[in-house]
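Morning!

This is the sequence you dropped in the shared folder:
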Amino acid sequence: MRSIASELDAWPQTEVAIYMQITAVPEAMRRRRAGVPGERVHLERGGLAVVENLPKYSHTFVAAAAFQVLDGSELRLHAVVSAERWDPQGNERKEHWRTELTTSAQHAHTALATVLTDLRVAVGEARASFDNARERTAADDAADAA
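The structure's back. Tokens below.
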């Protein structure tokens, strides 16, 4: 995630932060408390890079990846790209891309490389939408100020 975050940090008029969270794992697939029925997840870890529009925090872009260790030496890899627009009546969130891949521990390195490459591509594809939204907000703000 650090290399993806450093690429994101090159975007103009933005601020990038990295967090260790399992944001990429859908809620329904997350580890459950002991005694709660469902799939057994032994370990889950993840990271995300958050891009904030500057100078006004009106748009947020997120690239996230995570892994889960399952029974039978299986791993499940997750990645997601999403964007959020601030709105006083409630933020609007749009998921641009998501993937999930289950693999054996033996093939984890190759599978992780594939998922991170796909995440990088998805970030590039979603950037135009993020930039367009930022430009529309800047134009609206300029019109409101006039």
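Headline: The chain has one domain: 2-145.

More detail when I'm at my desk.
O.
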